[in-house]
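Reply to dn_fold:

You asked what the input looked like. This is it:
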Amino acid sequence: MRAFALVQEIDEGETEVVAYGLELPTGIAATVGVVQGFGRWQSARNAAKRLHSDLVWLT
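and this is what came back:
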């Protein structure tokens, strides 16, 4: 299982987290939004694409 954050640029050089998530060993991902609810995705990359965000893996 890998943790990730989805971030969007709000101003030049500044970003904000829009969701936190987990990618399961099967590749499916689940997110919890900072403002909106939760989501289930085919992958973490798919979630980032659909939410117009950048994917950041957390260690």
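The mean pLDDT is 94.
Hope that clears it up.
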